[in-house]
């Protein structure tokens, strides 16, 4: 007979858009926030999230819904991992305090609900180009990018798995 386990405690870090505003009230500040697809988690992602977490006392991650990933044009076969799985993997990370799934192309709604002190993206973005940064600035928050330490990507991993040339 196999033992029955309760749901792992990290599942409690996943909150719906409706519960986000209230859940954030319980987090220590300053709050750092980021967003992304995080389809197949790799070393670049986990390093980036650990570094982002050091910028404040809590890290909130907004993860794209499957429908919003399809709006980004990453390919007909993306995402590989469905939204609830991507959210669970992120929630299991020590660096991550809260995870929410968002449905729009740009995560302005969850950012407005969280009102982070610091908004962060990876070094593949420029702060000046981000509508999220303009929103966060409206309540006095700041935004920054974190340079890549490891050149990794989900797209490159998929190419490798599927027999492409990536190492
Ligand atoms: N190698 C990396 N190092 C640091 N940060 C990264 C790296 N890859 C992605 N990021 C950051 O992680 C977040 C999620 O990125 P994303 O899901 O687009 O990763 P990806 O592996 O580049 O995916 P894809 O290949 O599907 O575009 C973004 O904020 C991005 O800037
Ligand atoms: O994982 P990605 O592709 O880095 O995440 C995207 O980031 C976009 C970014 O915040 C610029 O607006 C966002 O709009 C998009 O929905 C993905 O989260």
Automatic annotation (TrEMBL):
Domain named Cytidyltransferase-like: residues: 33-127
GO terms of molecular function: nucleotidyltransferase activity
Domain of life: Bacteria
Catalytic activity field: D-glycero-beta-D-manno-heptose 1-phosphate + ATP + H(+) = ADP-D-glycero-beta-D-manno-heptose + diphosphate
Pfam families: CTP_transf_like
Keywords: ATP-binding, Carbohydrate metabolism, Nucleotide-binding, Nucleotidyltransferase, Transferase
EC number of the protein: 2.7.7.70
PANTHER family: BIFUNCTIONAL PROTEIN HLDE, FAD SYNTHASE
Protein name (database record): D-glycero-beta-D-manno-heptose 1-phosphate adenylyltransferase
Organism (species): Mesosutterella faecium
């Amino acid at each position: 007979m196999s033992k029955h386990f309760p749901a792992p405690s990290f599942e409690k870090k996943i909150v719906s858009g409706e519960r986000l505003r209230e859940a954030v009230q319980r987090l220590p500040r300053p709050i750092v926030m980021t967003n992304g697809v995080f389809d197949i988690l790799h070393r670049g992602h986990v390093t980036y999230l650990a570094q982002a977490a050091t910028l404040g006392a809590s890290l909130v991650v907004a993860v794209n819904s499957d429908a919003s990933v399809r709006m980004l044009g990453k390919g007909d076969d993306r995402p590989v991992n469905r939204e609830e799985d991507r959210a669970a993997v992120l929630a299991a990370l020590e660096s991550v305090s809260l995870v929410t799934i968002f449905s729009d192309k740009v995560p302005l709604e969850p950012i407005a609900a969280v009102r982070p002190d610091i908004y962060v993206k990876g070094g593949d973005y420029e702060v000046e180009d981000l509508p999220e940064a303009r929103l966060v600035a409206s309540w006095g928050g700041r935004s920054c990018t974190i340079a890549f330490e490891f050149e990794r990507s989900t797209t490159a991993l998929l190419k490798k798995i599927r027999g492409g040339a990536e190492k």
